[in-house]
Every structure is written in C-alpha cells, then in structure tokens.
Amino acid sequence: MRHSRPPRENSTLAVPLPEALKTPDASRVRQRNVLYGPWVPLGFVLPALVYFAAMFGYPLYYSISMSVRHFTVASFLTGVAPYVGLRNYVDLFTDRLFLAALGKTAIFTVFSIAGQMVIGMLLALFFRRAFPFSSAMRALLLAPWLLPIVVSASVWRWMFAQDTGIINYVLLSAGIVSEPVPWLIEPAYALCAVIFTNIWIGIPFSMAVFHSGLQALPKEIFEAAEIDGANAWQRFRFVTLPLLKPLTAIVFILSVTYTVKVFDLIFVMTGGGPAYGTETLAIRSYQLSFRDLDFGHGAAVGNVLILISLCFAFFYIRSFKRSLIVEEG
Amino acid sequence: MRRERTGMWLRIGCGVLIVGVMLFPLYWMANASLQAQWALLDPSPRWLPFPPLIDGYKSAAGSQWPHIVTSCAVASAAAVLSLAVAAPCAYALVVFRMRWTTFFILLMLIAQMLPHIVMANALYAIYAQLGLLDTYYGLILADSTMGVPFAILILRAFMASLPRTLVEAALCDGLGYWGVFFHIVLPLSRNGLITSGLFCFLFAWSDFIFALTLSTRQKIVPITLGIYDFIGTHGTDWNGIMATAVMASIPPIVLLLFGQKYITAGLIGGAVKE
Predict the structure, then answer these.
(1) CB contact under 8 A, A151 and B245
(2) pLDDT at residue B273 above 50?
(3) Do A155 and B264 make contact, defined as CB atoms within 8 angstroms?
C-alpha cells in the first residue's frame, strides 16, 4: 500500500533507510494522547515481552552461565555444574581446533561476502533499467535465497561429487583440469566448495537490496554526469558507488552477521570435514556440545561467535541510531 | 530505433543466460530426481530426464511423506504463534507513544543476529530440564524465534503506513484500542499479515538445526532432517535424495511463483516501494 507521507530529508544516509527500520513520524509521535493509561500499551506488548524474555533473554543468560561452568552431560543428570570462571574461554585460546575454526570462519566470511556483494552489485546494475521480463527474471533469481538451505546443500553436494558430479564433468570437458578435482575430499577444495555454495545462496539478497537502492537514486545526477562527459565506469565509480555507500555498509554488516553463523550449509555438505577442513566456529560449537557433550566449552565458542557478530552489529546500530535521532529531532 | 531494439534483445538474452546459470542447480535437482539410479552413477551426465522415471519419488515418498506432514504442522503452528505474538506488539509500537520504541527495535535487530547454534545449545539444556526435548511444543517454540522479530519489524512498517485518521476516527466513535486493533487495523493489515506469516512459515519449514538438536530421539523429523538422514543412509540413492529435495522445495517455489509481491516486501523488510 502506498502512503502519502512526504519523504524526509536524512542527513546521514543518501538512500533512505529501509521502511522497517524507521520510527514513526515525529509529528505523529508528538501528538499528546490522553486516552490511555500506561497499562493499555503494556497489554499489547506484554506477550512479546514475555516471549522475548523466555525465548531470547533466558537462553542468552543460560548460554553465558553454561560457558563459565564445567557443564557436561553429567550435569543434566546430577544437576551439578561447578563454576570455573573464565577457564573455558582460556582453554579455547590454547585449543588448536578452536584457533583453526576461527581462521576458517574468517576465510569463509571474507570470500563469501566479497563474492556475493560483487556479483549481487553487478546483477543489480544489469537489472537497473527495466526491460521486457526483467522483473520476472529478478523474481526467479531470488529462488536460491528462499530454498531451505538443506536442499541447496544437498544439491551442491551432489554437483561437487568427484566422479559423478556435473562440476567436474564440465571442468574436464572444457579442459580446465586434467583429472577430477577432489571437491569435498581435500580440505582446501572443500572449503572452496562451501564458500562457492554460500555465495550462490547470498547473491539474491545483495542483488535485491542493491537493486532497491539503485532505484531510489535520483536520475538527474546521472544525467548531469553524462552531460559532463563521464563514461559509464566513471559514473559508477564517482556517482553510484559513493551514493550507495551507506546501503553497502548495511548489506556488508547484515551479510557478516549472517555468514559467521552459517551452520546447515556446511554441516550437510561436509559435516565440518574432511580433517576439520571446513570446521567453522558454528560447527565447532555444535561438535563440542553435541558430539563431545562438553556443553561448557560449546557455549563458550558460541558466545565468541556472538561477540564477533556484536562487534559488527555495533557499527550498524551506531549509524542506525544516528539516523533515528536526525529523524526525530 | 533499430539499435535500441537489438539492445533490448541483447539484454533479454543476457538476462535469460544469467537466470539459466543461477538456477541451473534447481534444474539439475529436478533432472536427477527423474532419472534412474544407475544413470546418475554414470560419469557422463544425462542432460534431459527422458523418459522421466518416478522411481526416485517412489522411494522417497514412502519414507518422507510423514516428514512432510510434520514439517507442515510445525511450520504452520510456528507461523501462527509468531503472528499472535508479533501483531499486537507491532500495533503498540505504531499507535502508542513509547519512550523505548527505538530500544525495542534495536533489540529485535540484535535478536535476529543471534547465531542459531547458541540458541540450540542453550535451548537444549533448558528443554532438558523442562522436559520439552522431543516435543512438538518445544520445536514450535524454537522455530518461532526466527519469525517473531522479523514479523514485528514487517508488521510495524506495514501498520505505520495505514492512515492514522482511521484509528483516530474509530477511537472517537468509542471503539477501544483493542477494538481498533481487531476491527480496523488487523483487517487492513491483511497483506502485511500474509507476508510475515508466509515468511515465518518458510523460516520454520527450512529449519534444520533446531530439529537436529532438540529432537534427539528421532521422534519429530521434519523434511529437512529427513533429507539429511536420507543422504546418511542411502548415500548413493541420489534420485531419491533429489526427489525429497524437490518435495521440500515446493512451498518456497509456490511462494516464488504466486506470491511475488509478498516476497519482495519481505526480503528487504519493506525497503522498496516499487
């Protein structure tokens, strides 16, 4: 539904924030409403408050509490989980597998995000000007993002199969490789394979967001640049990119927080193997808790993962908060 | 004029090529599901499923049908629960002047960032004490955590776009805030409810990690876990595995083909107004 609210100037963002992130108009908020007491709003938010406390607050508290205890499978039976302070966290930094997982997570995240943002941007630029069937094509391109990740992971697992997979068949027929590549069998290749698959899943998101950002840019600027003699590359480099910078930052941060926690994809494609070759922090946390039944260390790894996400989220929230203040002020 | 037309055809051609390359895995999945098992173990691939065989579906349907029913039930319940929690909250965030609105929205953004493995770890321990492991309630509750923050953000954006005067007129006519909510705002937010409901359903439908960790005795097996187990036990039965994968893709594909406007609205949180 369209609404007729005039667009508000926003000094920090060239592209308006997603509608979902805006607070209601200042003019609306300011209206003094004396029709209700404090308990009327409370009645509406109470289910959500209880829900958030029970399903987010308590698990988060529990995760922190488990991570500072010697919490094993025996703890479930006896109810005893002795407090050990920060020992679990200290243990992590002397654990070779944890440090390796940290590195794998970094590699996985950097390459996934670089790939999906660059390709997403290219596709968004391609679909910038509408042509017949372009919106239908864009819609179809969202499919990888909507499919259950387990489905995508199993399809790619089969496509990466060494002897019967289509990828090796194509590479061999094109003469790019002379013998089948041991995807999913050699650790380094397996990491490439999961990164490649994750890029495929992530492209639709960045394409869609960049596309919406490009549509929101004023056409006059590009016309002016064109009259001034800027070629296509210069228009992209010096006009489009700077204008899209805030949106790019948002896509980047959302992609980071999404990518560091990827679990299903790696678990189904490789199970973290071969030889721990694709074991990221999320997989490591699962293995510690549910295979080794060492929930204390598993929770500690999970909390490190939260910390990493929060570091990036911090920048997101800072820019988001500033724009809120501008909007309300 | 002529050049413009060639340019247009060139663009359409490139577009078709891009879509073809990007969606090739989906075609390959459908193709494999219709092949004979022995054909899939042949190093030279069969590009077309002719004649189409339904062996894969036969071997999958028998074992996977109950899992699809489970997935449908769990995902529907999770979607209903998510909307029931989210709708009143979104309404309150739009209608009332509250000091901590911003804080609440930040909280929801952060809630969406929490790694699922952390939630799974903690919920496993909590459920073990409450006896919620291997129960439908437990899995539905866990699955809804993916939908609730998302639904609040979407519904809030949607309700904020409704004309404020409607609410005020109804209030003046003596309809209370709950009356306005049920009789005015909810019916008018139909599209918003459908969008967020569909996404909550899809989130829960796609869930793997909660089913994997919170249902340890293989009592509740949704289709995602079914595929995973299938790969584990019938590692070379790729036509059966791909047939299962096709069945698990039906809800998102149907949504893609028939609910396009809802997807675009949901994907970027109502960012685009096209």
Answers:
(1) yes
(2) no
(3) no
